[in-house]
Specification:
The structure is a homodimer. In chain A, α1 packs across α8, α3 packs parallel to α4 and α8 runs antiparallel to α9. The radius of gyration of chain A is 19 Å and the shape is globular. Helix content of chain A is about 40%, strand content about 25%. Chain A has a 10-stranded mixed β-sheet, with helices on both faces. In chain A, strands 4-2-7-8 form a 4-stranded mixed β-sheet. The first copy, chain A, is an alpha/beta fold. In chain A, α5 links the parallel β10 and β11. The first copy, chain A, is built from 10 helices and 15 strands. The first copy, chain A, has one domain: Ribokinase (UDP-N-acetylmuramoyl-L-alanine:D-glutamate ligase), CATH 3.40.1190. The two termini of chain A are about 35 Å apart. Chains A and B meet through β3, α2, β7 and β8 of A and β3, α2, β7 and β8 of B. β3 of chain A pairs parallel with β8 of chain B, so a sheet runs across the interface. Chains A, B: This is 1-phosphofructokinase family hexose kinase.
């Protein structure tokens, strides 16, 4: 069983428009709503892959209720903890020319008691899982070192951890020793910059390798960096691999990172496959996600076809 | 007492951004929510002016509850009828350079029983009012001739009517004989085009006069056309007037039409002032609304100052 944690879950709302014209009024014909937030997307993908998964995190208000109803409709088991604040929405305006414009509302305030309540629930849930995926931003009120705390409890419980975060939550989380960290290039740049105390950019494989090594030194057992079209760079205790697909994938990149996290999370299950296999799965799932119009969904046919198109290179 | 009817009420949500960049993700720092829809804005303005007002219409779901809570917080009495559908949101992205971009969700579906239930409530409410303002679009399921029905009941009850609508709801409403119709130039163009069976544009006072005369012939007792910076053209049984302000008003034009409707509605109250006074009030309120950052709000100081800047010309 894999547990996904989404502390800043969101109701994803998509408005379809012919074209986005700043300054104009757009009458929306079609609205799509779905449960969102990185960990929720990871849970949905794992569920679609036939893995046993449970989604937890914080939700509140009418928006939170709607989010949980939609997740239930998708068949994804959940154990979100209710909070008094109102869950946020993430509004995406999707134009017919393919451009997507996002408006991310701030998360709901979380009280100290609510956070303590969540920690108790999380520790109880850990008893029944093998892997936990910790994903996304933190709403206001949740301590900046929240992921460090959650990783610490998992480690004590003998549960593997995959961390997908950005900024301070990532920086505070890595020293707690997650099994895998999955930053993208921008997140890795930010982390490496803060470690070095000067602004650096991860623009190529060498720079990604240097930043990933620094991240391992800080505490992560393995780092899998998602570098967009350049694929994945995995820096692990067993070796370093570069995995990519030769297919040029057009589509919606939102959610490709979540698909990658899903692959890495199931790679941590007992009897999990060796790194090259996990990376092949991660690239193929990410690619299938890019081809899907909706974040957090993958077409099984795309997934299988793309697996064959992935090349894995072991780096010395 | 004035009754405002908002069949397609909305929760107005404003996202403040530095700049709207199509294709980018915007993290929203500040969200403002308020009860919206044309008739709701009219009610809020009338309440602020010290008039006795009651807002009715249809609201549903968590969004409808939020809308009613916000209206109550504004102190505006309401008697909305609950429906099973979820009230819509109107999302406005307000950029620091002053550009506002709107995303209008479609209204909730309304069942036949709900519409009949509303008609019963409306007829009961008519017993206690002198004027009813019928404002805005119709949600799906409400008959296209809804305003004709509502005007008919008002006429039977001896209640004056002000109609502010567009497209088919306007075209079907006018023959029922509203006391005042308040179209803007685009709405008047559309109505006149449908009457003539060919596309005409209301671009100047002469064209507005021709279209207003045709609208009166169709059934409206008076027509007050709001022509943006060109002011108001009132075509009535007592005469024709052109009212405008010499002040160049910069700001948010959303809601200026609602302010104008508020002035015309209170002009229909017993002991109401003569047309030139009503038009002065309407132009000044509309101007004060333009200067307000929020639709449906007017600054009393702006309102009073602008009254003095309005010129009224009687047209032969």
């Amino acid at each position: 069983m894999i547990l996904t944690v989404t502390l800043n879950a969101a109701l994803d709302v998509t408005y379809r428009v012919d074209a986005l014209e700043p300054g104009a009024v757009h009458r929306i014909a079609g609205i799509t709503e779905r449960a969102g937030g990185k960990g929720v997307n990871v849970a949905r993908i794992l569920h679609a892959l036939g893995e046993q998964v449970l989604a937890t995190g914080l939700t509140g208000g009418a928006t939170g209720t709607r989010l949980r109803d939609l997740l239930a409709a998708d068949g994804v088991p959940e154990a979100f903890m209710p909070i008094s604040g109102e869950s946020r929405r993430t509004v995406v305006v999707s134009a017919d020319d393919g451009a997507t414009t996002g408006f991310w509302e701030p998360g709901p305030p979380v009280t100290s008691d609510e956070w303590q309540g969540f920690l108790a629930r999380y520790r109880a849930l850990l008893a029944g899982v093998e892997v936990v995926a910790l994903c996304g931003s933190l709403p206001p009120g949740v301590p900046v070192d929240a992921y460090a705390t959650l990783i610490g409890y998992a480690r004590t419980a003998g549960v593997a951890t995959v961390l997908d975060a950005d900024g301070d939550p990532l920086r505070y989380g890595v020293p707690a020793g997650p099994d895998v960290v999955k930053p993208n290039a921008a997140e890795l740049s930010g982390l490496h910059s803060s470690l070095l105390g000067r602004r650096v950019t991860v623009g190529n494989l060498d720079e990604a390798l240097a930043a990933a090594n620094a991240t391992r030194k800080l505490g992560a057992a393995s780092v899998v960096a998602s570098l967009g079209r350049a694929g994945l760079l995995a820096v692990t205790g067993d070796g370093v691999w570069h995995a990519r697909t030769s297919e040029q994938l057009a589509g919606n990149p939102t959610g490709a990172g979540d698909a990658c996290v899903a692959a890495l999370a199931r790679g941590r299950l007992t009897g999990g496959r060796p790194w090259p296999d996990q990376l092949r799965d991660a690239v193929a799932l990410g690619g299938a996600s890019v081809r899907s119009p909706v974040a957090g969904e993958v077409c099984p046919t795309d997934h299988q076809r793309l697996r064959a198109a992935v090349t894995i290179e072991e780096m010395s």
